[in-house]
Amino acid sequence: MHLDLDFGTADLTSEVNRLEQLGAARLSEELNEHGFRWIVVVDPEGNEFCVFNPPKSLRHWRLRNT
Predict the structure, then answer these.
(1) Using CB atoms within 10 A of its CB, is residue 42 exposed (0-12), middle (13-18) or buried (19+)?
(2) For residues 42 and 47, what is the distance between their CA atoms, to the nearest angstrom?
(3) Phi, psi (deg, nearest 5) at residue 58
(4) Which residues 6+ apart lie within 8 Å of 54 measured at CB?
(5) Which of 8, 11, 19 is nearest to 44 (CA)?
(6) pLDDT of residue 55
(7) pLDDT of 5
(8) What are the mean pLDDT values of the chain's consecutive 10-residue runs (66 residues total)?
C-alpha cells in the first residue's frame, strides 16, 4: 500500500533542516511545479514523505511555522 503523506510549511528549508536533525534524510533536492516547492524526505524507519511550501495563492492553508 502506498500512502502519500505531505506536510506544508511556511519555511521549507528550515523545516527540512529541523527534520534532518531529528534523524530524517533528504531523498530529493528541492522540486518546483505549478508554484509548489517540495522536498522528499525519509524518516529513520524508512517512511517517505514530502515537506512542501504552497504557492502564495494557497497560503491560507494551515502551515507549520518553525
Answers:
(1) middle
(2) 5
(3) -115, 15
(4) 8, 35, 36, 61, 63
(5) 19
(6) 79
(7) 73
(8) 72 95 97 91 93 76 54
Residue 65 identity? N
| Domains of the chain, CATH where assigned | 6-57 (3.10.180.10)
pTM for the model = 0.78
Q: Which residues pair with 64 in a beta bridge?
A: 9
Measured CA to CA, the distance from residue 6 to residue 61 in angstroms comes to 13
